[in-house]
Amino acid sequence: MFTRTMAYQLAPLLTSVLLVTLSGAYAEDPAADLRRMAVITSLIPAVPPSANRGAWASSEAVNFTAAFRATENGTLQLSVGILDNVTREEMFSEWVDLGSPSSSVKVVSNPSATYTVNKTIQVFVQCSDGQVYYLEQMPKHAVYFVTWYSLPGSLPVDRAAWLVGRDSVSALMWKGKVAVFVRSMQVASHLYWCTGVARSFTPWQDLGGNLATDATVVYNPFSGYMEAYAVLSDGKVNRKDQVHNDKWQDWTVLGFSQPDMVNTSRPAAHAMSETIFHGMTEVFALGADGKIKHIWQTTCDKVVNPWGYCTWGLWGNIAGSLSNNIPAVYGHAMDRPQPRGQVNVLAPGHNVHLGNEVFFVGKNGSLWHVWQLLRDDIWNGPNLIGRPDEGEIASLPTITQDKTGGWWKAYVITTEWNVGIVAQQKNLSLSVERMASGSNLTVSWHVPADEAAGADWIGVYRQGDSENRNYLDFRYVQGGQNPKQPPVPKGSVTMAMYLPDGKYNLRYLVNRKFSDVITTGVDVYGGPQDENWVQLYQGMAIGLGKEGLNITLCVKDGEDTVKKFEQAWEAFLQREFWEGLKLLGVALDDLVIALVQCEETAIGEALRKFVKDLLNCATAQHCTSFVVDLVEETEIWFKDSYEIFGDIRAASNNFRLLKAYKQGGVCVGRVVKACINVDSNITKALVY
């Protein structure tokens, strides 16, 4: 193992000298593995370069990814990535050198990028004179970062300052402004901050501290304020909380009985899913014993207290030590998944279920992580993720999150000095691309283990309908209409769909939520052509498992049944749930009569009991069988055992959006069948 400690030494001419301790690797750029890119996705389409690492030749405005890096020559460079239409992967251009503020003022920090109020990109760096400078993207031009600007005021500088780390600048959006934080180049280094709109920034404000590491600054979405974390000269992780737009509390040691930490690696912080008492932030640090430590907020309040808005739990270890034996990979002799170096090695992120993850580059030049599937779940790892196709990793990782589903992606600089991507592999495929209505379709998927939950599900939608609540059919990954355990990272389900002719999407959605992360499509032909009421009764018979029953011969007034169901769906749509249950019971009573008329007496009588439960619950205020839960998403539970609103919503969507009465009937029939089976099993349990 080798240790690299980066220092800024300000000579009399205030030029920065990089001092490191090496054991031979990366001789061309000894600080390579201290570098970290700033990676940001454009908010407005712009004209990018050609992304084939060759000529710059594109005139079409598209969305793009901008990757910035500082070079060993003290300049800032930009590579632009666009999505390849064939491979659907990001392809990055050659590096374009954006220079430095002047020939005597060189870039010495890693860059930090954010958006302006005008949705353009600003990128900030600290330079050899100790000051912060920035470039701003010209609208509609990806690579036009022309003029260097300095932030107002002068940060104090000590000529003999030694600072560990290159992540000294942080920029983020806050309340419509850009907030910039920087660590001063002083022997007793302080944290400073300012805010600005467009190119108008406030003077620097001193936030104090005697920082031994760079600082991490995060936004707390519950309090609406920012929080700063750093290891100070006392060797402890300290926090500093913003409590008003221009007021911060004093630096305070984070948590009780804090373990010894590596005092060259800044703590990492990331928002977790909100706790029941509004705790939002989790902090990670590299322990002196080689283990990753973490601590999290247990409560947050809207009223500021002497200890800030939030209270904290206790420090603990994440998963195993970073010294467990791991098999050699890629032909490298490697005994342990240890981070390569001890400076700012941890990078946080999260998965689609909002479980936090911590990433680091190992000694083998590959990416590793520890992770939890959900907040408060167990921690897993360290697990090897891999390396980019472009080669070995030669920098610290930058973790980004997909804006729709939350999938993470890691951007790195490779030993070939290109932008490398370590992305999660996910796939959703179908057994056929075109199917006859009523035939079977097998849906297969493969998602990473850290992204798979038992409540993930497959939804069917009209192509072009972006509202994920408008599903027409669905299966949880275990194959049914209610979720089970365990998760199924790789699997398949088979479903028969009785949809009208048209194009449909199948989407992989996460954790019983309406958030899709993978989509594919299928064409359906040969859809039902019968009258609406005939389709409805045929569908209900299929859902009940009586597909061969010619139930339409036993129906007196089918059109009236259609109207009754439509009235029930409208009540549910208006969130009149008890009225909806009553009307559903009235509509199902027609099905009872038809089943008895067709001599399906056993199932008819079982359904009659279910209808009686529905009507008693909705009208007689005697509800022992149904529970309506409206806390987050609507759920209606039968006998505390089976959730029925998933199929109710699917049936309603089929009626309302497509006039797909046969598919809607299938949803009605199968939920009735499931509830009858639940009731039967409960009765048997009581008898025995």
Structure characterization notes:
Keywords: Signal. InterPro entries: PLL-like_beta-prop. Pfam families: DUF8189. Residues 1-27 form the signal peptide. Among the domains are: 1-198, no CATH class; 425-527, Macroglobulin (MG2) domain (Immunoglobulin-like, Sandwich), CATH 2.60.40; 530-688, no CATH class. Helix 1 runs parallel beside helix 6 and helix 5 (645-658) packs antiparallel against helix 6 (661-687). The strands form eleven sheets. Strands 3, 4, 5, 6 and 7 form a five-stranded antiparallel β-sheet that branches. Strands 12, 13, 14, 15 and 16 form a five-stranded antiparallel β-sheet that branches. The protein is 16% helix and 32% strand. With 688 residues, the chain is an alpha+beta fold. Strand 8 (112-115) and strand 9 (121-126) form a beta hairpin.
- Radius of gyration, whole Å: 30 Å
Poorly predicted sequence stretches spanning 5 or more consecutive residues = 1-30, 51-57, 324-335, 682-688
How many extended strands?
44
Query: What percentage of the residues does DSSP assign to strands (E)?
Result: 25-35%
Q: Give the end-to-end Cα distance, rounded to a whole number of Å.
A: 66 Å
**Helical run tally:** 6
Structural class, from helix and strand content?
alpha+beta
How can the largest sheet be summarized? 5 strands, antiparallel
**Roughly how much helix do the residues carry, as a percent range?**
10-25%
Anisotropy-based shape? elongated
Average predicted confidence as pLDDT: 86
